Amino acid sequence: MEIAVISGKGGTGKTSLVASFAALAARPVVADCDVDAADLHLVLKPQIKKMEDFTGGKKARIIPDRCSGCGMCFELCRFGAIIKNGSYRPAYAVDRISCEGCGVCSHFCPEKAIEFSPAVNGRWFVSDTRYGPMVHARLGVAEENSGKLVTLVRNQAREIALKEKRPVIIIDGPPGIGCPVIASITGTDAVLIVAEPTVSGEHDLERVAELVKYFNIPSFLCVNKYDINPGVSKKIEEKAAASGIVAVGRIRYDRSVTEAQIKGLPVVDLKSAPAAEDIKQAWARLMNEIN
């Protein structure tokens, strides 16, 4: 069983919730699919067992001995990735950060002086945590193909779950509704949407609701810090219900959550945290709804 936890925006408490779910679940595999800004490792403190490079795209490179300095690549590039090299050879160079990997420069180079080869876009890891295996990744600065990296992370998590006969995969998805979110939720058994009781939170829920409805995935709602604005919390739950999304949890505002983050612990590991009871109830209701 795969459960993806997502949100319409960052900062809703999604990752804190996933960390607590990892502590509550029976023999889980955890997949951090927020590869652009991964932070689940700050709480689960994984011990890396395996690390590999991720190659998800291509980059151009000018071969000095072949370049005649004609400047065609400079004229054709629409991303400003070809820069003049002054008096140095070759006459032009490729800015690796600006290069979008379209291949136009390589295709039209009359001297065939531009190599277009796979590039390392990031790294992925398989680790151990005190709650079970964790698969996570780090996309490089200004790199592309985060959706491909998310898919790789999920596939690795599935392999581990199958090999070790672990019954549940908990996915910490990225915020928003873009490509990496779609890669995180496609084919999952359930999606839990974490929302906050604000005007933007209400709007973001509508966007995420449309996304999960399109993929026809059983969806559930948890409102974090619901008590800071009960009126908006109610409106969010009503809108979710109208979209067929079942509300399974309300988590109160609790300063203990910050304390847990400082200590690098899931909230449920703090026995004195009032929010811990809310999270336990949300997990229990989610399991009951899914099963």
TrEMBL record:
Which keywords accompany this UniProt record? Iron, Iron-sulfur, Metal-binding
What are the residue boundaries of the 4Fe-4S ferredoxin-type domain, all occurrences included? Answer: 58-87, 90-119
Q: Which Gene3D superfamilies match?
A: 3.30.70.20, P-loop containing nucleotide triphosphate hydrolases (3.40.50.300)
Q: Which SUPFAM superfamilies match?
A: P-loop containing nucleoside triphosphate hydrolases
Keyword rRNA-binding found: no
Task: Name the domain of life.
Answer: Bacteria
Which GO molecular function terms does the record list?
Answer: iron-sulfur cluster binding; metal ion binding
Task: Spell out the Pfam families in the cross-references.
Answer: CbiA (PF01656), Fer4 (PF00037)
Key word Iron present: yes
Protein name (database record): MinD superfamily P-loop ATPase
The species is Pelotomaculum thermopropionicum (strain DSM 13744 / JCM 10971 / SI)
What's the source species' lineage? Bacteria, Bacillati, Bacillota, Clostridia, Eubacteriales
Its encoding gene is what?
A: MinD
